[in-house]
Amino acid sequence: xxxxxxxxxxxxxxxxxxxxxxxxxxxxxxxxxxxxxxxxxxxxxxxxxxxxxxxxxxxxxxxxxxxxxxxxxxxxxxxxxxxxxxxxxxxxxxxxxxxxxxxxxxxxxxxxxxxxxxxxxxxxxxxxxxxxxxxxxxxxxxxxxxxxxxxxxxxxxxxxxxxxxxxxxxxxxxxxxxxxxxxxxxxxxxxxxxxxxxxxxxxxxxxxxxxxxxxxxxxxxxxxxxxxxxxxxxxxxxxxxxxxxxxxxxxxxxxxxxxxxxxxxxxxxxxxxxxxxxxxxxxxxxxxxxxxxxxxxxxxxxxxxxxxxxxxxxxxxxxxxxxxxxxxxxxxxxxxxxxx
Length: 340
Hints:
single chain; alpha/beta; UDP-N-acetylmuramoyl-L-alanine:D-glutamate ligase; 9-stranded mixed β-sheet; 4-stranded mixed β-sheet; 15 strands; 24% strand
């Protein structure tokens, strides 16, 4: 049985209720989530063995985050209780033609203060088969980037599959280094990457190519270029998203593996309940799909896309859809096809 370790940050999310603007808010709804934790929670929800590794301060707010982790059945025995504070972010949910807005309050968070040697990676990775990280963690601080690389190298030495969600967040890269100075070494170990080609090229210090993803031959060439740059890369996937407005999305998925492109059908979503965490739902679905349907990549990308689509209808950071719901969705609404 596979055991997936995810490494990153869990945050407190504060949102005005009922799509109010920040300027109208007199109260906030509070929940806890974060990219890598959301992936672990999705996997646990599908019945997979998933463990989350992070640093959380020893205070009442840190306890709230820990309670959330436990509530999803995610492993937590290697979480460090240390650091100054839990990172926070404030989310103003958009509607129709008004976009959502995010304000971060993550400076000096526990995970950004973590240091090399704080985590016993040998113990953390014992019995694990998969290690997942995202581009958010190395954006937080130089310390976090170093510890992320430490974990990646340990996972590589133990023969784990390494997956990455590129997750570029421009507002977070504030400690003096750019993605192209940090990400190429980290990505060089990755076997599975989720992210669009433009973001991948940007993080690798290359010129963007702005491919037309509706034309499969262009997408294939773009994915192939990334594969040539990263020696350990086997599979790359991305969501295809057409945002008509904040409440109306069209979602599909692409997966490239060994020269073959697998494409999940487009799905129209309106109204959107909560867009936050939909990429994490895709990533969790992709990892699960690649584990469970390793011999059927059409089903793997269909499962990832289905999970992403359903998450748009669920409030909060975490996808609460069951494996059966995702399978029923892809069975009733079509699957992916392979173009060779």
